[in-house]
Design goal:
7% helix, 96 residues, single chain, 25% strand, mainly beta
Length: 96
């Protein structure tokens, strides 16, 4: 679903990262959150003690709300909107 990117926008170097076990394309300078949105991934985590039927996604996109927390390279609670992608990065969302 990477068709959500604006085709005429100039991008940085093409990168590959792994999201929930799937190889996805990203571009240097993008945040993890931008890549997740471009891939159609909206549910990022389940609320603490909440139902697995309700999941949270990003809200503010600028590091204030902390709703976009994901696991990056085995480190939990990383803010996807504040983390720039890099080659080979592994991202796991809890909202699968």
């Amino acid at each position: 679903m990477s068709g959500l990117r604006i085709k005429t926008h100039r991008r940085g170097k093409r990168l590959t990262l792994c999201v929930n076990g799937k190889s996805v394309t990203a571009y240097a300078g993008e945040t993890v959150f931008a890549v997740l949105l471009a891939e159609g991934i909206r549910a990022l985590r389940h609320p603490f003690g909440g139902s697995t039927k309700t999941a949270s996604g990003g809200f503010c996109g600028m590091g204030v709300c902390q709703e976009c927390r994901v696991t990056i390279d085995g480190m939990p609670d990383r803010r996807a909107c504040m983390t720039e992608v890099r080659e080979g990065m592994e991202v796991v969302t809890d909202g699968r």
